[in-house]
Amino acid sequence: xxxxxxxxxxxxxxxxxxxxxxxxxxxxxxxxxxxxxxxxxxxxxxxxxxxxxxxxxxxxxxxxxxxxxxxxxxxxxxxxxxxxxxxxxxxxxxxxxxxxxxxxxxxxxxxxxxxxxxxxxxxxxxxxxxxxxxxxxxxxxxxxxxxxxxxxxxxxxxxxxxxxxxxxxxxxxxxxxxxxxxxxxxxxxxxxxxxxxxxxxxxxxxxxxxxxxxxxxxxxxxxxxx
Length: 226
Known about the structure:
Blueprint: E1 4-25, H1 28-37, H2 40-53, H3 64-71, H4 76-83, H5 93-110, E2 125-143, H6 144-153, H7 156-169, H8 175-181, H9 186-194, H10 202-225
Antiparallel strand pairs: 1-2
Helix pairs in contact: 1-5, 2-5, 3-4, 6-10, 7-10, 8-9
């Protein structure tokens, strides 16, 4: 039997309403200026929406900025540099924004040719924004066994929310936070945090999380029978 959590874990899910901001870019200078000014949710949308929309694809497609720079501006070097930013290293959207700005500005200082590249008509970068509606599911976990059962049943959208949005927006606890603070499962929490969710489909991510929890439960059970 696993310990009872100090605080139960409420699984949440969310839906996004995505809409055009009216901002667009035809070259790298305009893209950079808009990246500096658009709301956090716009940066989040353009760096994360593919994770849900392409949940059955692996490896994952690049973020929108990298895709546009590579394919519309034909700047493959800068596109690769943007695509190679390791989003796992950042704990907020503004940190991600700052890193993208740094990469673009450094590239422009090194390669002035990038400034002359312009997208054709119809291939401009259109900035999107998103409004998120978060609501609780019927699944609540009071311990590690409950948590495993819920992980098996919740939608991939719930898993996505707690792995990505909970970490970056810090409104609802992430899986890692709850395991560490409410169950005192520090090692398991660290194992969760070491996973790279950006290189997995959401169903693969569910399986990996379940495997970690079930192995922990199995180890606890074996320890008590010795």
